[in-house]
């Protein structure tokens, strides 16, 4: 993509972003801008193409009970049990409701209505609370639907939850095991981990074989990760939580032998980023059997 073409699509995306009834055009333009390739919605093949199809034609606002970070706790309690939930310290509709003094020395604040609305507090005594309050208010004012036109986020009530800080011993950052599940079957695991002080990503298949990539990528994890001791239990949980869906990502943590639920994500990377192992875009895409349009 040359300079002029990139500028054209940047302007097109900006123009279409808040234009009514232009979701499909916006998604197509944004996809081309990010991937330098056309989005095929008429005959989708790759994983990201099929995720975009599901975003537009299948997954709607009825899914909000699975992705709202507060409401999903009820679903988890009913399906796999309350013991897999992280401890809830509070839920707030307004930032001014948060009793900062009552929170422990370590905790996590999350926006319930989108992705990336997180504030991790490892030492409350060092926290700039007025600054954090301003950031939380910014979170609450945002409609995550506007970012990638994911209809499933459109009707979620903005709230903030406080949860217990989960420590992972002998590591600089907690490992988040993201199980990519196709028609109720976990097939791949996407993991992020620190390497050289940088958060990098890596993909494994269900037999814990690392997916090799054809060329050097700065954001791909070079080192190998140990398979969790309770990996088979994690697979079973992922199966239970994904059994009713065409495609969903089940995020789990394993800390000192205990499994914690993270979240359900129906649109991996918003469908805007391709799998870093290029051949697997087609391999993963083939695992999704699309229904007729709603």
Structure commentary:
There is one protein chain. Helix 1 (3-17) runs antiparallel to helix 2 and helix 3 crosses helix 9. Helix content is 30%, strand content 21%. The two termini are 35 Å apart. It has a five-stranded antiparallel sheet. The chain has a four-stranded antiparallel sheet with strand order 1-4-2-3, with helices on one face. It is α+β, with helices and mostly antiparallel strands and 294 residues long.
List the helices and strands and how they pair.
Blueprint: H1 3-17, H2 23-35, H3 47-57, H4 64-67, H5 72-79, E1 88-92, E2 107-111, E3 118-121, H6 129-141, H7 145-148, E4 160-164, E5 176-182, E6 185-195, E7 198-205, H8 231-242, E8 247-255, E9 258-265, H9 279-286
Antiparallel strand pairs: 1-4, 2-3, 2-4, 5-6, 5-8, 6-7, 8-9
Helix pairs in contact: 1-2, 3-9
Globular, elongated, flat, extended or rod-shaped: what is the shape? Answer: globular
Q: What is the number of E strands?
A: 9
Radius of gyration: 20 Å
Give the SSE string.
Answer: HHHHHEEEHHEEEEHEEH
Distance between the termini: 35 Å
- What count of helical segments does DSSP give? 9
Descriptors for this entry?
single chain; 294 residues; alpha+beta; five-stranded antiparallel β-sheet; four-stranded antiparallel β-sheet; 9 strands; globular
């Amino acid at each position: 993509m040359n300079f002029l073409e990139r500028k054209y699509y940047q302007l097109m995306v900006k123009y279409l972003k808040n234009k009514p009834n232009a979701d499909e055009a916006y998604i197509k333009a944004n996809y081309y801008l990010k991937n330098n390739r056309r989005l095929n919605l008429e005959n989708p093949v790759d994983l990201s193409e099929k995720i975009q199809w599901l975003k537009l034609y299948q997954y709607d606002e009825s899914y909000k009970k699975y992705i709202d970070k507060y409401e999903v706790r009820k679903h988890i309690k009913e399906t796999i049990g309350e013991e897999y939930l992280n401890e809830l310290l509070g839920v707030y509709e307004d930032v001014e409701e948060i009793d900062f003094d009552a929170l422990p020395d370590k905790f996590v604040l999350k926006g319930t209505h989108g992705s990336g609305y997180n504030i991790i507090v490892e030492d409350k005594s060092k926290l700039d609370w007025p600054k954090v309050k301003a950031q939380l208010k910014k979170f609450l004012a945002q409609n995550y639907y506007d970012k990638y036109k994911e209809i499933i986020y459109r009707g979620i009530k903005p709230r903030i939850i406080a949860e217990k800080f989960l420590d992972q011993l002998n590591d600089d950052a907690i490992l988040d095991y993201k199980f990519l599940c196709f028609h109720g079957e976990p097939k791949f695991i996407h993991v992020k981990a620190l390497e050289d002080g940088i958060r990098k990503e890596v993909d494994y298949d269900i037999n814990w074989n690392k997916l090799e990539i054809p060329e050097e990528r700065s954001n791909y994890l070079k080192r190998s990760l140990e398979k969790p001791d309770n990996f088979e239990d994690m697979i079973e949980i992922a199966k239970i939580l994904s059994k009713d869906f065409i495609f969903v990502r089940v995020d789990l943590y394993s800390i000192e032998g205990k499994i914690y639920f993270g979240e359900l994500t129906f649109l991996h990377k918003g469908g805007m980023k391709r799998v870093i192992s290029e051949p697997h875009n087609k391999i993963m895409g083939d695992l999704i059997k699309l229904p007729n349009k709603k």
